[in-house]
Every structure is written in C-alpha cells, then in structure tokens.
C-alpha cells in the first residue's frame, strides 16, 4: 500500500463513475470546498466525466484566493522594508495587491524568499540574527498547525527576530456563510479531507442538520473525489443530509489532538475578511495575546494603506458559486492568468484560472480530442 | 458594485482599476522563465528594436545562408544556482545548451564560443572545475570552443559564474526543421524520461534527498539528431524542452505552426522520483526543465524506423510516442488524462513555484 | 487548499527537543516534523503538509475503501446493468 496510485486506478474510477451515472436522476449542485480538490478535478478532467446533472461549484477553499487584499498590501509593505527577509509559500508571490505583488517587491530589491515550510523560515531567522524574518502565515486548518508550531518553537528557542503575518481561515464558518446567502445554490459539500485530518469532523453534523445539506469528507486523489461525489449524490437522491467520512484512511473523528491543543494555545478565533466575500464572523485565527510579540502586524506597524479592489472583479460571487467565471464581463478579456484582476485568476486552484485554461476548448474540439487521443501511439 | 460589470475599455493602460501584474516597470524573474513573460519581453521590446525576418521565426537557433553554406547559429546565456548539481554543472549546460539549440535545426554543431562573467571573490578552483567541464562536454559533443571572453563584476553583483555560449553548425542539404512545419497527422516523440534536470537542480535548492540517484540529463543531442536524419530528412520539428519543459515547448510549436497538439498523459515517461518530487512540491512534471531531451514532430509513416534509430542511440534509449498533431484546436496543447478526461496544457506565466495548495 | 502527500517514515530522531523524521515520498526523502504525531514509528505512513506530519495513514481503512470501490463493480455484475438497478432503487 503506497496510498497513492491505488487511488488513481482508471478501472475503479470507471466503476465509481458508472455508479454515479446510475444514481443521479436530476440536477444537483455540489461544492468542493477545497482548492486542492479543484486542482485535482481539473488536472484529471473529472468534471468532464461526471453526468451532466452533477455540477461542481468550486468553493472558496484556495487560501491564496481568499487572503484579503488588505493583508496582501500589508505583506507588500513589510516585505519592502530593508531590514526584512520576507518568506512565503510560492503560491502567494503572484497574488496582486493594490499595487503590485511580492514578485514586484523582489524585483525592486526586497528580500523575498519562497520556502517550503514555515520551519525553513525559522531556520533562516536563526542563521541571520541581524535580519527581521517574517513568514506569511496563510492557509486553512491544515496549514495553521505548522505555523502555530513554528511560532511556538521561535519562542522556545529564543529566536526573537522571527515573526508571523497571520491570515488563517477556517472552513466551517465559510460553509455557514455560503449557506446563509439568499442566493445560495449549493446542495451538498465535499469537505476538505486534510482540514479534517487536523480538526476531525465534529464541527460538521450541526451544519449538515441546520442547513439540510449532505457533507462528505473527501480526499484528493481521483478515486477519493469520485467517492465523495458518489456519496453526496446518493444522499441527495435519498433526501438525506448527513456527515459522511469518505476519507477514513487519513481522517479520524477526533482529528489530531496534539495539533488541536497547539492551535488553542497559539491562536485565538477572530473575525476575518475573505477576499471577494467580505468579513465572516469567527472565520479566522490570529495570534493569541501570549504570542502577540511574534505578530508581524504588531511588530511592523503598517499604516497609510489604501486598499482598492478592482471594481470589475467579481471573484466574490464566483467564490460563493453565484457566478460562473465565464459569466463575468472581465473574464478572458481584461482578466486572464497573465493579467489577473483577482486571486481566483492567479492561483492554479482558482476557479477563474481553471475555467480559463479549460473553457477555451469548445465542445466540438473536445470531442475531436477524444477521437484523436484514442488513436495515439 | 458587483451587479454593475464595468464596461470593457479598449486600452488596458487607461483602465482606472489597479491591474497590478500588468505593471511591469521592472524586470521580474519570470521574464527569464521561458514562459509567457519571456515571450512578452521578446514581442514588446526586443523584436520591435531589432527584429528581422530571421529573428522573427523565434527558432532555438537561426538558420542563415552564408557563402553558399547553410549555417545554424545560436546563443544562450546560462545562470544556474547551484553551479554544481547532481549530474553536471553550469559548464555542461553551457556546451550542451548551445549544441542542442543548433541540433534542433538539424545542424551538426561545429564551433562554440564561451564567454564567462565572473564575480569577484569566486574561487579559482571553481572556475577551473567549470572550465574542465566545458572542455569535457565539448569533446563529448564533437565541437571545439574556438573563441571566448572573460569579464569580472564586483563582489555581490553576480552569482559566482555566468556563461554565455554561442555556436555554429552546418545544416545538411534537404533538411528544413522548424516549429512552423508541424502539421496535422505528425507523431510527437520524446527521446526519453522527462523532468530529471529540473528536479536534480531543485533537489539541491529545496534540500530534498533521493533514495535513488536523480541526476540532470544534460547531454549533447547532435549525434541523436544525425541518427534520426539518417532515417529520414523529412523531420518537421525538433525542440529541446529546456526551461518551461515539455508543456512550454509543445505550446510554442502549436502556436508557431497553427496546429493542435494532443498528448496522452500516461504515455509521457516521468521517472517515479521525478513524479513524486513534483507531487510533493506541487509542480507539474510537464513544465520541469530538461537539458538532454528532444521532442520530434515527424510524419507518421516514419514512426517505427525513427523510434528504432533513436533507441539504438545512447541519448534516445527511452524514446516513445507521446501524442500527435491535430487540425482541431489550433495553437493549443491538450492532454488526455489517465482517467480519460482532458485538460488544456497552457504555457506557464513565469517560473513554476512550489505551492501549498 | 492543502497539498499534503503520503510518505513512509524511514528514520526518527530528536532535534532541538523536537521529534523529527526522514520521510520517503516514493524515492524522495525529506525532513518532517513529528511534533503532532510523536508516536509514529519507522515504517508507518503519514500525510505530510508543509513539513509537518498531520495524520497517520490507516492501512486497514485504505484497504476497506478500495474493497468498497471494487464491490461497487461487483454489485453491478450481480444485479445486472446499472440503469435497471437505479430504477430499482428509485422505486
């Protein structure tokens, strides 16, 4: 068992697809919350293989996409300071702020570095005591424990020149916000498997019950996603709304208790603005008072920011599933992956970028591709 | 606000909304990444400044007629960190990169130049090792380095060693290989496993260890091309998928020729450690650099003979068909996924970055 | 949202008072922090995200999931084609 190729088997995928085709009798709108799932769906062409009645709405689960503009602008301002070495996950470097992105700060002489793990940033801080090393702590519940532990370690090891610019977000309040929207079309959720690896599933039954939506904890390999869809559709067809765990190999009901304890120690729940959506109560984490000295916002008082979201960008509606990317007037004209207005066009997981890559292939061309591809080699 | 979509203005420069990525007052790393930003630099600055009929073809090497001979002429600058990586160093790249650019027009590479830009303070032993690698790589490729230059920049103004190499070679009669010649029906062949160079370099940068040896594939391809031309001079396109990888090279060919390209994703040979390293860093192996591979577009009737000839050559033992050229979706590259879906393979905007999501 | 990949623990050690492991991702080995899964043993598989092991992978559960997928096809063989079965279920 390698936990990888076993879950990409085309034969088993066919069986799951047949089963979904056989189960569905009417149109359903499912939202995959997680951008990793969106990526997998596009990467493997899964949405093309599903029955027409099953619509996948790409949810606000790309941390890069939902990080608020104000926070990006703060990152740009801090990264531009001469004493700062600014470390970030690679995905954040191209996300547009009000004026430029982190690449541009780097181009203008800023010390901006891509790291794989927040621990790498801490190591940079340890090796360069004369630099102020700031890590851009974005992400959902999956990433938050890593950043929490890094701050905890910084304090334990006495690495005072490290700080965290925190913009963490939490899934359940976002699900609630989406369901409360009067125009909500979502009928079932594929919950993010790796978020639940950390958090467990205990936050979800109440949501499923209150809003009458099936919530299926779903993994990321093609078979996992098909299984998530299969279970969600089965519940919908039967009129059920339960929480199911379709990713039991990596998700236990109780989550990861050690990670939960660290999150509770280092962070506290706060209201958080989601880019394009607005402020969702209780939807984020910030550093708790005991760790305030490691908060980059606190350490580098950034003032005088004038944040301005492009008016033409309707990514908020896209993220809520209210608007298909190609229905936006800017889509594919002024807004493309090379000239993105909003983050959903930047990230490889962003719904707009995914659509852009993909919708340019008309139905006729797709059919031709099928024909041609089968005759290849 | 959201309910009133802004009217589309004809000139994005006049647009009142901030469109930050369009703000290109400075050079970004992505301008050298071989993707869309590089193409933009070429189209917006270099071509208007000194474009001509030959440059505008945008081939890896220019083909020029001079005194009755058909010459391929190419130049390439090399900046790589680290200077030494598993399987080679910047010296190997300087020779093989230029040799391969020449070979991609069907030429037999003959003479190279090699210009060094050294950073003050760089250890001479490092320069000596790199020079040794240049010599060995030139001998292996059957070319002579016949001219060169050295400049030194102040400490802190360079990355140790930069090398610019140029080269010329003779294009055999009857050979006309360029991206514009791809046409529907052509088979697309790759000469071996992809992604090794990029992952070997990345492994040093990202602190990855490999259970098995992952070495750069850097190698000269002149001999392999000669073996292929011996099968048929009717090769349409050759391309070495360096920066930007197979995806970018295929995209350039599709664009230049106005044809569509379809590849079968599970036919593309990706070594397991490369696939796993990419999975781990969130990269797509199709976009990872190679330094000793070529893509060939050829009429289908020659497929078997070409594959046989390639596989008999040390640089082509892993040659396989990965797709074909189609009349549909001109200018686009489409991958058929293992599950039977399709996806569009677009050129990357800039450099691929490790992602968390 | 979260690129997390499965890997096998090949070595465990303590560094600066923190449990660390070398984890093999199909031929690629990387240092991983075990602070959240200190009980992981050599040979265990774990999900890793940005350098942290988040959850041990449960082989029994994985096998059961795959068995379920296979049984979906088997059911089909047993009960005839999927469409009639769907009709059956819809009744």
TrEMBL record, chain A:
Protein's UniProt name: Hydrogenase formation protein HypD
Keyword set includes Metal-binding: yes
Keywords noted in UniProt: Iron, Metal-binding
Domain of life: Bacteria
NCBIfam families tied to this protein: hypD (TIGR00075)
Similarity remark: Belongs to the HypD family.
Iron as UniProt keyword: yes
Pfam families the record matches: HypD
Chain's gene name: hypD
From TrEMBL, chain B:
Name of the protein in its database record: Hydrogenase expression/formation protein HypE
Domain PurM-like C-terminal: 183-329
Source organism phylogeny: Bacteria, Bacillati, Actinomycetota, Actinomycetes, Kitasatosporales
Domain PurM-like N-terminal: 60-171
One protein family per Pfam: AIRS
Family that this chain belongs to: Belongs to the HypE family.
Gene: hypE
Matches recorded under Gene3D superfamilies: PurM-like C-terminal domain, PurM-like, N-terminal domain
PANTHER family reported in the protein's UniProt record: CARBAMOYL DEHYDRATASE HYPE, HYDROGENASE ISOENZYMES FORMATION PROTEIN HYPE
Protein source organism: Streptomyces orinoci
From TrEMBL, chain C:
Domain of life, source organism: Bacteria
Family statement drawn from the similarity comment of this UniProt entry: Belongs to the HupF/HypC family.
Lineage: Bacteria, Bacillati, Actinomycetota, Actinomycetes, Kitasatosporales
NCBIfam families recorded: hypC_hupF
UniProt name for this protein: HypC/HybG/HupF family hydrogenase formation chaperone
Pfam families: HupF_HypC
